[in-house]
Amino acid sequence: MRFTIYQESRLGGRKNNEDRTTYCYSRDALLMVVADGMGGHHYGEVAAQFAVQALAEAFQREARPTLADPFLFMQKAMLSAHQAIADFATSHRLEDSPRTTCVACIVQNNIAYWAHAGDSRLFLMRDGRIVARTRDHSRIQLLLDEGMITAEQAATHPDRNKIYSCLGGPTSPEIDFSRKTPLEHGDILLLCTDGLWGVTPAESMAAALKGRDLMQAVPRLLDQTELHGGPHRDNLSVVAVRWEDTCIEDVTTSISTQAMAEDEVTTRLDQFGRNPAYKSELSDDEIEKAIDEIRAAIAKYNPKQ
Amino acid sequence: MAQQANHPLPNGYRLEEYTIERQLSLGGFSIVYLAADADGRQVAIKEYLPNSLALRGEGETRPNIDAEHLGAFRYGMKCFFEEGRSLARLSHPNVIRVLNFFRANDTVYMVMPYEEGRTLQEYIQKHHGQISERFIRGVFTRMLNGLREVHAHKLLHLDLKPSNIYLRNDNTPVLIDFGAARQTLASDQPILKPMYTPGFASPEHYGKRDNLGPWSDIYSVGAAMYACLAGSSPPAADERLKEDHLAPAMQRWAGQYSERLLEIVDWCLNLDHLCRPQSVFSLQKALVETVIPPKPNRHPGNWLGRFVEKLNKPIL
Fold this sequence. Notes:
heterodimer; A: alpha+beta; seven-stranded antiparallel sheet; six-stranded antiparallel sheet; B: Phosphorylase Kinase, domain 1; Transferase(Phosphotransferase), domain 1; three-stranded antiparallel sheet; 13 strands; 17% strand; globular
């Protein structure tokens, strides 16, 4: 497999980031997940973390190097996350269960499989156009589908954030599954939370990413979305992958899984809690001091021969 | 975080007194170059360049670091200094040395001697399942000399694995890549993002990091020996804690390697850190003890069996 992948989750204008993203790949399979913990409920970020972890851990266990049944895999992992969230609520005696949306996608043997609950979305982009997407589990989507409201009305509708399926909560989630979708060279799969799609229309995203290097184009897309999102903008998160033909060797930023062992899985998942990296700063003086110290140690213990 | 690939410095680039010859490897945290020093000697130069925080475009020498990433970039630099500090104080034939350390292009560089060879990982891949006991004992006994020196400086390697054990052309091992090494006594440091490799990291890496100790590196040594036998890494320790599918070396290779060696591998891979060898010295002692040849059960009595047994007998 060969692909270019980029993931990022941003705070937006909020105090807390309740979005979580992850991707993992084995030699022959790729998993991507985006989850958006629900703000109205406590511990939204816990629920989102459960969702991405449940999928990532199951993938690490089962991708040997492919999954026997990707749809069944996603169903089982999402339901087990739902159960884990419920257990968390019980063990912490929470009055209300934390909740999260979840969209997951597997690619293996050049075929994409995806599943979702809630209003985090997947778009399949080809040649700058949207060729497939998920349908939100929201009342707004139902109204749209029935032609009761227009897209413009939907964008400002007061109920636009209300969803009827999610992981966590009293009822079992409704999970929608895609068809088996063969991928072509250059196809982009983009998974995102409403912080992104709610501000930047999918068609604009597809146009912005067409033919560009995802490593630069996706962060730029997030920059622009933040710019338009206003001061109270939501958390925004994305995982985007460009699928490439194994035989075409041109891009240096892409990942090739050819050399991986059959039972090896690489996972990109941020640790729970805030990134510890931001806690400390290192001043220029401290850098100089550290280097001097190391050079002194070299001179003392490893003098030039 | 972003997964990006950085452009390396161009071949022929002058970096202080060094001339870059080519890129040797590209990791998530750094780029390693082959370069020549002023006297024309080959060196390896490691450039701190975490690809999630600093991006260098084609034809550029300085990486672009977003203002919002500067804090994290500098924090990662601390870890790079940590590695430099650890290595600078060690002087041992089985541990990579640091020749120089300097700042340039808005980042930092560590210079190490370059030697021809390959990693144990490459060796395992090439000789999949065909590694002799003699080789394993030889390499690991000497590698442990280096690890002993590391532990003697109150340091832990914490990322020991076949790809971090470099074999010179004469098969003498050198410990490389101390990116995860931390001074164990400096416990006031903020918790660092755990860095480990599944399959080789000890159970303590995942859970109670307070329990990290020499025995944690010893677990990794056991996993690396296991990988020599199996041709691939053992299951990850966190998976083993849930449900242990690790086939004990004693069973899996009974008769093919000496019982003592297999016993040592299983001993190191014990999930309970208190049940492993507690020091490199005790492990080394076990490893150099007289070898008991495998029991000749398979070929009882007949002359051919005895002959085969003789051939299989490991030589120390």
